[in-house]
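Worked problem 6 (solution included).
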Amino acid sequence: MNPEILVKLTKMRMPYGKYQGRILCDLPEPYLVWYHQKGFPEGQLGMLLHTLYEIKLNGLEYLLKPLR
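Solution. The predicted structure is:
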């Protein structure tokens, strides 16, 4: 995994929607599950949200803590 992706998850903010302005790694898991069912958006944001979904699904949030 590219470490830059983890850094982006701790720095980038959600650009729109219910959680607009929230840092991606702070998005609640049910929101990510909803995106997983609906389909992640195209592009970099979709890739980051899908990665975050996998991190939370597998209990790997500890990977993000040192980067915060």
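Discussion: The mean pLDDT is 95.
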